[in-house]
Amino acid sequence: xxxxxxxxxLPGQKVNEIGLALRxxxxxxxxxxxxxxxxxxxxxxxxxxxxxxxxxxxxxxxxGIGCSSKTPAYFVHGAHGFNSVHGRMPSVATGALxxxxxxxxxxxxxxxxxxxxxxxQFGHVIRRNVNMLYLIENNxxxxxxxxxxxxSADAGSTSKKGEVNQMQNINTVATAISMGASFxxxxxxxxxxxxxxxxxxxxxxxxxAVLDVISPCVTFNDHEGSTKSYSYIRDHKLxxxxxxxxxxxxxxxxxxxxGDTHPVRLHDGSTILLRKVDPDYDPTRRNNxxxxxxRHRAHGEIVTGLLYIDQNVTDMHSQxxxxxxxLKAMDYERLNPGSxxxxxxxxxMK
Amino acid sequence: MxxxxxxxxDFVLKIATVNGTGSASANGLLMKALFRMGVxxxxxxxxxxxxxxxxxxxxxxANHAGYMSASGRVDVxxxxxxxxxxxxxxxxxxxxFLVYDSTWPRDRQLYRQDITVLGVPLSKMCNEAFSVARIxxxxxxxxxxxxxxxxxxxxxxxxxxxLEETFASKPKLIDSNLKAIMLGYDYAKENFTCPLPARAExxxxxxxxxxxTGNEATGLGCLYAGATVGAWxxxxxxxxxxxxxxxxxxxxxxxxxxxxxxxCIIQAEDELAAAGMVIGANWVGxxxxxxxxxxxxxxxxxxxxxxxxxxxxSVFIDVQRVGPSTGMPTRTQQCDVMLCAYASHGDTRxxxxxPANPHECFEMAVAVFDLAERLQTPVFLASDLDIGMNxxxxxxLTWDDxxxxxxxxxxxxxxxxxxxxxVRYLDVDGDGIAYRTLPxxxxxxAYFVRGSGHNRYGAxxxxxxxxxxxxxxxxxxxxxxxxxxxDAVLSKANRKTSLGxxxxxxxxxxxxxxxDRLEAEGVHLDYLRIRAFPFSAEVVEFLQSHDxxxxxxxxxxxxxxxxxxxxxxxxxxxxxSILHYNGLPIPSECVFQGVTRHLKLKKEAVA
Lengths: 350, 607
Fold this sequence. Notes:
The complex is a heterodimer.
Chain A: H1 37-51, E1 59-63, H2 67-70, E2 80-83, H3 89-99, E3 104-110, H4 111-117, H5 119-128, E4 132-138, E5 141-142, E6 148-149, H6 172-178, E7 183-188, H7 192-204, E8 208-214, H8 230-236, E9 237-246, E10 261-265, E11 271-276, H9 286-298, E12 302-309, H10 316-320, H11 332-335, H12 338-346
Helix pairs in contact in A: 1-7, 3-5, 4-5
Chain B: E1 7-8, E2 10-18, H1 23-36, E3 41-46, E4 55-63, E5 76-79, H2 85-91, E6 97-101, E7 116-120, H3 122-129, H4 133-152, H5 156-166, H6 171-191, E8 198-199, E9 209-212, H7 214-225, E10 229-232, H8 239-252, E11 264-267, H9 271-283, E12 288-292, H10 294-310, E13 314-320, H11 337-342, E14 352-353, H12 358-375, E15 378-384, H13 385-389, E16 392-395, E17 410-411, H14 413-417, E18 436-437, E19 448-450, H15 464-484, E20 489-491, E21 499-504, H16 508-520, E22 526-530, E23 532-533, H17 537-544, E24 548-553, H18 559-567, E25 575-579, H19 588-606
Parallel strand pairs in B: 1-8, 2-5, 5-6, 6-7, 10-11, 10-12, 12-13, 13-15, 14-15, 17-18, 21-22, 21-24, 24-25
Antiparallel strand pairs in B: 2-4, 3-4, 9-16, 14-23, 20-22
Helix pairs in contact in B: 1-4, 1-5, 3-4, 3-6, 4-6, 5-6, 7-8, 7-12, 9-10, 16-19
């Protein structure tokens, strides 16, 4: 069922640059379990989109199948949403953004949706560097079908029924970095302070930005023996680098650069300000990022933050030199060569 | 030797070569030369699923009456492939001719009393005349063109002109090609009685015709339809569609100032992704399509069902090849009729257009986009390898500059402003087609696309009545589709008859020829060529107004007949299948025999 949220505009509420209140970025009421990490991520998305003053109709909310894939219904009711088929969200998003490159694409997927049935499409949307936020709500478990292990479940972790997972997990962020992703981050659903700026930076990034968000499943994967529970993540989370997004309109004060901060300027003029929590972490070098992840994984630590960024990877449209105007808005007169051209062309067929 | 019948502008010339030796351009040259002489011609490739080294054949049929189908005979065989000499020899029709490369002796193998064998030392002559090994192989092919020009009276001036046009930018190549042509030509003139009874003669005027493959025409149609996004995964025999679209886009769709592309072609990771991309692009309002073949449709079926239920316009081009499974990728069939009609799980059904030749490929490649957008559903364009990859002579393509794409029921911001509220799946007009909006335009038009149960307002539902409401409306839409698809083409017999014959797609040529032959023998058939599914009213009417209806199709299981029986179940006992499914294009002989045999059996049963 979809439950509409009553729309109440309170006088005097804070509005963003385009005059919209935070409530204008909300969607239908969530039907996920109470306490689900996914709902926290939804709240972070609402906050980030509002802060960025995204026009609701410019946004497309894409998903596949699973608990995670329900969430696009729960934010920005003024945006078109697309709940596609299992593991195939990337291809629909690719087509949509091919047809209209001005849209802001957010794909919400899960570990089941992206790392098993959709592993191929996950890899290829990264390879094409389609300009979108690819957010994985990662809980290590199949919730809708009642608690089977997913491909991101850690070896040795147990299910609610007590089964032990014997297989190695697919490490989402390491995989994305190895496959050539231009932006890879990881966060925790319960850490909105970290998540909101990461989402903003990911949306501003001109390419495929992969955000892996550990999101505990309160029903099937929040018990002792789980490595994706609230308590486990809180105990093992390690911040590598923090990010802030400063829009081109905002004044950048010199003091922001003080200390161990490092600004990364995006092509749209905005700046990602990286605060290094760990001084030896450099998110612009791939081998460094992978090595760092691996070193901390060996200690059972989950590294979070902006893990890797490469501004120089061209996106799908730059690769194919598509015109800057959205193809869907192109006048038919510009697309059709007309009858004379057809006659001329056929001279070569005689 | 039997007396040889004269076959002026009525012959089949078949050339047996080895894949990858450059014979395609030599064969194209022969085909075009005949075309320029005003002779109706078709060229069919028979090629292996291989890049280099296996046997390949090219069959040119010249026919003054304009019959285009495979005829089942061979008047002149050029046997350039030692591997297949014996088979090629056997295939020549009695009274026919076989030309072979006599550089090496083949006498004992090449013996048949009822045909004439002509040896031309092609390799020897070319080895003497050319020094580079690769050139020698290529020129050997050009040399047989010369020999055939002499033997079959193909106009040498026409050939010269064609060479000049082809190599306009490389004049050196004109000389070497001409030299090779003359080697073959002079040898034949000196050693044989030229011309043979099977020969060409300048006739009518082909200036209103062109030679084109179906895939080329389909790609061109997509361009003219205003398609901007093409997503695909390479698969024989459909690859030529995207090659064509891409080539024509490079020619006509580049922004002259910036050099940017006014199109986006995506080579997907697989057919599943290609289908998803097409659906995504159409959803935002860009015309998008994917060309594929049967195995691709199998993979796309999940998305096809999604687009049916979520009502997203999408265009699927199926250039059919031989199944099941990988089957024979380089052979032709009409075996995906059922697959396309009902692709995907649950209750689904999809319109299909069946072009019969490249001319219709062009027209229908435009119509298919309009239909998909008007009906907001996946629509198939189902050609086949015979149409798609062979060279067809068809009337020139024409274009009406007043054409504008029919985007169907799309509401923009101005329309929405006049409305209290927009809902996605409400049947406002009673035709089963609801209004849609496009992302990126207006928050008031926002809705949620889903493949899960939804109601007429676009909301998620698990309510039985609400679910059924949508499924029943989709049936109303199906009825509307019957009024929108291209009409069937009826050719009445010269006199009143209770016999009908029904075909679609590339079987058309075989039926036309067989029907003329049957008429000469006193068997009269009304002919209806189906051009679309669902069947428009005239198809059902045709079925009901004939006692016996032959249904000609190129698959084993009589798929079209099954579809007809589903649509009009009281006519099952009147339908007689004529089936051809060996992977080669259906010959007219097959249709002729099928009708004759049935009528004879029926007569015997009555007696």
